[in-house]
Specification:
heterodimer; A: mainly alpha; 2 domains; B: 11 helices
Chain lengths: 360, 316
């Protein structure tokens, strides 16, 4: 008797599942319907309170999520509802992050396009008051100083990476790896102060030289080159090295003739990205290279103009009719963005088209 | 550097040691050691140039209250702006990392990650331009609202700055700048979570969020912490965006939305250095040294946290 009684009760509980089990699913259109509903309420709300587009979007997102949560909670239970809530939050977090990027690019392009003309690329600021003038001197300064920086950083960074991957062992390897990582975090302004302090000891106070800027930027660029080159060199299969050794090729020739050519695409990408990182640096150049209105191609003789510093001074010290200088500042900012984004694209192209043909 | 290679008898026991090999290995080692030399050099030269400011009588330091009195408000401003940035950016960055690794469709995920990385590529001075001309004016109504409704909290005591160039604006700009750093590191760790952990959670009937909470977040915790500390390091040292956006006047205050804000060390150097001479330069270098020491400590701690994970992760 006592054995038989539970049978009907257990049968009954199988028909009505426990509270927290998945009772059902919202239909596929449920999510869309919930957000449509939220948008409708938001439209009503912003019509009543006379608010802006931004507030409307925020209302719509929040209310849509709320409607979805409530509906899901009723139909699917607490756990599914929480899952849907988190999905909405995570997705909108990504959306929030896209707002500044879009707004920034829009703003810089909109304001910078004004002076993006031939004169901007061919004239310096010498003798310019008010309208006209350009950033030829600053553009050349940026190219020269960035070139010098690459000239210092790429060999040092590459050799360090080779040392770390091919030669180093033990404590020195750990120390160098660790401090390269730490070095990537040096504030750019500190790198500038370092270059200044170094050259003051050599040449006396108040010194401003193009090469000082290159030294400062190298402090920032070397660790980036090392990190990326190290990652790439590690990817070169050991079989290639061993095959080379087996043929009696010395280690250094193996590195130069086998390892580096195999990794060349990755190295190119890494170096390009490292250049992209330093080309927009302003603070170290502000305190080591200074600014000038004339064209100076000699990094070992006096102040030079560079694009970021040019943009900074045109915006903060625009002169008497300020609008012309401010326009120039925005155009310089636009060129900086184009340079950086262009370098990023070049880096991707290098890694795609120059990648080694693997047999696999 | 080749001269330091002492065990010459050992090298004869090896098969063949060509001069080319020795030169190449020596150059590589020299380059490696030069990294350590440069880092030590940064510290050494900053110390040498900071000494005059440390030893000078306190009356001669700008502000007339000694070196500590000069640096303290700047240090406070630096820490405050970085703290705001960290509080805003960390949850957002983790959510973005989760979105890219676990929510976005597989096919577009890599592209979305690249778009977030673009935020890191934009030069800081451009962020400054954008902060002054776009963000700051748009935040003024929000600040007004905060002052009216939450004015009892010291952070929002007001009076609201009419330009919007406040500490809170700076914090938000910095948050956007460090977002890609934190999310990149978090993303990397989230991708390393063993698939078995995740599948085990799903097999037990967990929803996606429960799987993330039980398998992904615990595994990626040190990555999140390390990443946010790297972000903190960047926020502490950020210069041009702060120099352009922040309107500096006055000393230490917790008020985030008024026009009287303490400066930050990095921005102060950028603003003052070009026109400084003599002892003022040494004072600025001394403040830069303080910044260097702080960021070095933060970065070393962050790297230690991140590397510790790599040491005993069973992922690969």
């Amino acid at each position: 008797m006592s054995v038989q009684t539970p049978i009907p009760t257990s049968g009954a509980s199988a028909v009505t599942p426990p509270q927290d089990r998945v009772a059902g699913r919202l239909p596929r259109w449920g999510q869309l319907a919930a957000f449509a509903c939220g948008t409708a309420i938001a439209a009503l709300l912003s019509w009543l309170t006379d608010s802006t587009v931004v507030l409307f979007v925020i209302y719509a997102a929040v209310l849509g999520t709320l409607v979805l949560y409530v509906a899901s909670r009723r139909a699917e239970g607490r756990r599914q509802a929480t899952d849907r809530l988190v999905t909405a939050i995570v997705t909108s977090a990504f959306g929030i992050a896209m707002v500044p990027l879009a707004a920034l690019v829009w703003e810089v392009v909109g304001r910078g396009i004004e002076r993006l003309d031939a004169e901007f690329f061919s004239a310096s600021l010498q003798g310019i008051v008010g309208e006209g003038g350009g950033a030829y001197h600053a553009l050349m300064g940026t190219l020269i100083i960035t070139g010098l920086t690459a000239l210092i950083s790429v060999p040092v960074g590459l050799m360090t990476a080779i040392y770390l991957v091919e030669y180093a062992q033990g404590r020195l390897k750990r120390a160098i790896t660790f401090f390269v990582d730490v070095m990537t975090g040096i504030p750019s302004i500190v790198a500038g102060l370092f270059a200044y302090a170094l050259f003051v000891l050599l040449f006396g106070p108040g010194i401003r030289l193009g090469i000082m800027g290159a030294v400062a930027l190298s402090v920032l660029m070397i660790p980036v080159v090392v990190r990326s080159a190290e990652e790439v060199l590690k990817l070169v299969p050991n079989e290639l090295r061993e095959a080379s050794y087996a043929l009696g090729v010395p280690k250094w020739r193996t590195i130069v003739k086998v390892v580096l050519p195999t990794a060349i695409a990755g190295l190119g990408t890494g170096v390009t990205l490292a250049i992209a990182r330093v080309v927009g640096e302003t603070a170290p150049l502000l305190i080591t290279v200074g600014i000038t209105n004339a064209t100076n191609f000699n990094p070992f003789d006096g102040r030079m103009a560079t694009l970021p510093v040019y943009a900074y001074y045109q915006l903060t010290q625009p002169g008497v009719p300020p609008e012309f200088a401010i326009d120039r500042a925005w155009t310089a900012a636009l060129i900086l963005i184009i340079l950086v984004m262009g370098l990023n694209v070049v880096a991707r192209v290098i890694s795609r088209f120059f990648a080694p043909k693997t047999g696999r | 550097m080749t001269a330091t290679r002492t065990p010459s008898d050992q090298s004869t026991s090896r098969p063949l040691r060509r001069p080319g090999d020795r030169i190449f290995a020596g150059t590589a080692k020299a380059a490696g050691i030069s990294i350590l030399v440069v880092l030590a050099g940064v510290a050494a030269f900053l110390v040498v140039e900071a000494v005059p400011a440390v030893t000078a009588p306190s009356g001669e330091i700008p502000g007339g209250e000694g070196l500590v009195g000069y640096i303290a408000p700047l240090l406070f401003g630096t820490l405050l702006s970085a703290a705001i940035a960290l509080v805003v950016a960390t949850p957002l960055a983790v959510a973005i990392a989760l979105f890219i690794t676990h929510y976005a469709p597989r096919r577009v995920a890599a592209g979305l990650g690249y778009v977030v990385d673009l935020l890191a590529a934009i030069p800081s001075i451009v962020y400054g331009f954008w902060g002054v001309y776009w963000l700051a004016p748009k935040l003024v109504p929000l600040f007004r609202w905060l002052e009216e409704n939450l004015g009892f909290i010291p952070f929002f005591a007001g009076p609201t700055s009419s330009t919007g160039r406040t500490m809170l604006t700076v914090g938000l700009v910095l948050a956007i700048m460090i977002l890609p750093i934190i999310s990149a590191i978090s993303r990397e760790v989230f991708l390393q979570v063993p698939t078995l952990h995740k599948e085990a959670a799903l097999a037990l009937g967990a929803t996606r969020w429960e799987m993330i909470r039980m398998a992904v977040i615990p595994y990626g915790k040190s990555g999140i912490i390390g990443g946010s500390m790297l972000g903190l390091g960047r926020a502490l040292g950020e210069t041009m965006a702060v120099a352009l956006v922040l309107s500096v006047s006055g000393g230490i205050t917790l008020n985030l939305i008024s026009s009287a804000n303490p400066g930050t060390i990095a921005a102060n150097v950028a603003l003052e250095f070009p026109e400084s001479t003599g002892l003022d330069v040494n004072t600025l270098i001394a403040s830069g040294l303080a910044l260097f020491v702080i960021t070095l400590a933060v970065n070393m701690l962050a790297r230690w946290v991140v590397n510790r994970r790599a040491d005993f992760s069973g992922a690969n």
